[in-house]
Amino acid sequence: MIKVADIMTTNPHTAFEQTTLEEAISLCNEHKIRHLPIVDSQQHLIGLVSERTLLAAQESNLSKTSEAQRRAHEQQIMLKHIMLTKLHTVDAAAGVGQAAKHIERHRIGCLPVVEGKKLIGIITDTDFVGVAISLLEMLAEQEPLSPDA
């Protein structure tokens, strides 16, 4: 059985409750990530922001606010005000299939991987796409040659 520990991202990028919206957006853009776990000083998972959460908290580009006003807004909002706190998590020893079903059933984009309360990794919907691609490639290699070949 493939376990979550086999495919999770270890040492994921994280932020703190006091991290600003501007800093979180910059971090996500810089590292090309869509989910940002929020931890305390002991690396205990306390929340999560997603790309969707960050976008919802931003000033709309359609509003009549200036770039300076938008930036000031993003510098004032702390993640503790917008983070999700009712989180779905998974243990590193859980099976990948079980984790995939959980993500699909609850329509979420990631599962933080915890050991007790401590964040040790993250597994995302993109990780499952990678697993599916690998499995499809393995199946394609095992297919017998057609009689016409």
UniProtKB/TrEMBL annotation:
Q: Which CDD domains match?
A: CBS_pair_AcuB_like (cd04584)
The record, for PANTHER family, names: CBS DOMAIN-CONTAINING PROTEIN CBSX3, MITOCHONDRIAL (PTHR43080), REGULATORY PROTEIN (PTHR43080:SF26)
Record flagged with keyword Oxidoreductase: no
**Which protein, by its recorded name, is this?**
Acetoin utilization AcuB protein
Supply the PROSITE patterns for this chain: CBS
User: CBS domain: which residues?
Assistant: 8-65, 83-138
Pfam families attached to this UniProt entry:
CBS
Q: Does the keyword Glycosyltransferase apply?
A: no
- UniProt keywords, alphabetically: CBS domain
